[in-house]
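Incident log entry.

Two folding requests arrived from the same account within the same minute. Monitoring flagged them as a possible duplicate submission, but the sequences differ. Recording both here for audit purposes.

Request one:
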Amino acid sequence: MLFGDGVGYSALFATHPPLVDRIRRLDPQFDPRQYVDIAKRWSAPVDVLALDAELAQAPVAGLSSGAPAAPGRVLPTRTSEQSVSPAQVAGQVGNPAVDDYRTADRIHREIPKILRDAARSQTSAMETVFALLIDTDTAIAARQLSLIANHAGAAAMAGTEDLLAAVATLHPMSRLPLAAMAFPAIRRFPRQNLQQFVAVLERLIHADGKTGLFEYCLAKLIGAQVTDALDPPRSSTIGKRKLVDCETAVVHLFSVLAHFGHDDEVGAKRAFNVGIDAVYRQTSHRYALPSDWVGALDRALPELNGLDSTGKELLIEAMVSAIATDNQVVVAEAELLRVICAALHCPLPPLLSVA
């Protein structure tokens, strides 16, 4: 991507170190001349669920449709770790490689048939997404199911309940691809139904402030996709905001990301500092989870989605650095990063390969 001073970005960050210097702190091998082709790709409007749909449906060398998965090839466990490079992850945005297709094929085959069938049927696609968002806490789940019954009907609630047992068995890497399977059927509904669907998603998000970050981001992602389908011209607008103009949103994002990505306060603070330092080297911000993190992200994600391509790439690299302060990520963290990136219209293929 064109990060060089010749395009005038340094002047936009006069109170911070030059942008190229900050990127090189993440990737010492960074060369701005390598990114001319990436600039074109990052500047194009993106259908963020299309990547997972493409990965799931594309033929993979050596595998025929319906063929059993290769023996010995399994999805990584929830605690599996893998080394990551911030610049390498950013380079994967909308740019899957052959191994990504193989991983996606395995993920696709691991999804229970009942869920694959439900996602592809217009009579149950919405319920499939609802089921992905139901909390594991029984009290919160009961409240969410009641919301579905009140605003989408008793049949929708029953259909959602029927899928919960299968959803509970899903590998973390299967949730976003399942949502991608459902969206083609969902977008065929009339405008009124789609608007109602988005309204239900919003109610599910806000059913309780303890909603998980992954579920929250997934719901926001699906809602944004429906909005894009209803208003294509708006979705094709390229962001023009600069990171320097979104400091509060960035701080809230990294605070929430650090909190949910680490089990202890010390680790969360370290991750926050790494991420913020990668974006704003000279800052007085300190780690503190917003008391209303849902509301904070409600405001932050749309603002950050309006960043220009340069800002989004640097933000993604900084998020990778924050999550992987030891240069390792586990499955749950990798998939959380994928959903956040997708909510910013920067689709990533699965980050962890099959074993």
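Request two (distinct sequence, not a duplicate):
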Amino acid sequence: MQATKMEEKTTEVRGGASTPQPQRLRDKKVKDLIHDKKRLVEVPYTASLADTMNALLANRVVAVPVAAPPGHWIGAGGSMILESDKQTGAARKHYIGMVTMLDVLAHIAGNDADPAEVDGGDLDKKMQVSVSSIIGHCLESLSLWTLNSNTSILDCMEVFSKGIHRALVPVDSHMENISGVELVESASSYRMVTQMDLLKFLNAHEHELRGILARPVRELGAVSDIVFGVTDKTKVIDAIRCMNRASLNAVPIVESTEDIEEDHGQLINAKDRKVVGTFSATDLRGCPIPLLQSCLQQNVMDFIHKLCGIALHEASGLRNSTKELITCRPESLLREWLTKLSRTTFIEFGSLMNRDYSLA
């Protein structure tokens, strides 16, 4: 996402009185993104990984901050983000990191050089470790930031364009009234703001972005020539390990062919290949541990079909990516891409640039 110049705020005169126009997008603040957000979902540092995954699924989120007693931990990335008493200002919690499904993937993947880990190891045992022990498995969990509620939408766009996917927003900060991204904060409560929140907000204000949203995706340089994917013959454990090594939240699944000799245990160049689904961290979040353990050696397509047949997956609002591909073409307008993503409960894949359901 790239910050773009917006129209200046204007006024009009009617009957000699100056009437303010509706607030322009460039004048909006981060607080406008979180006004209807629910209380922050978090987990204690002693929670097991299984409990953490249950929290992710129950609250339909893909990341949660980890809270610990103050004064005992060094925050991720050197951060010092505290929850404090509203009356006295005394610290009650210290957020020590952000655990995402990528961290869970890294933990499940284990060390594939270890003979005991070839088939994925004892998954039930892995899921009983404390969540604090997996912070830092992936770089994203070391990115714990806050955004002041008075930060402008344009500055928020700039921050998220640098690879930060989410940030905590203090509801009533005890720090000086700063504007921007910070590693140090103290507040009585927080909300979470994500890239998806920003996308939905921009989509709701598309009338102010006509000049941008009416342009083709290709023209904006948003089509990548390199697309990493897996084949429909890739095993679940191999797909998890591939995603872990490449720090990918999701990969397209492409149709295998006898005309190409390829290693189904590795990422492949999926450009110009027929897409038959996506495999994502979101899929794993909605999977009961016993089922995941039994499916690690199955191919990704069989796993997705089996997963979509259980009641928990349907109740959680997750979709079957083999039947509901979110796609757009290089000539598609940015408005179409933004609308599709903003109507999706979870962003699993930035976008699939396709031609007749082939990556192009």
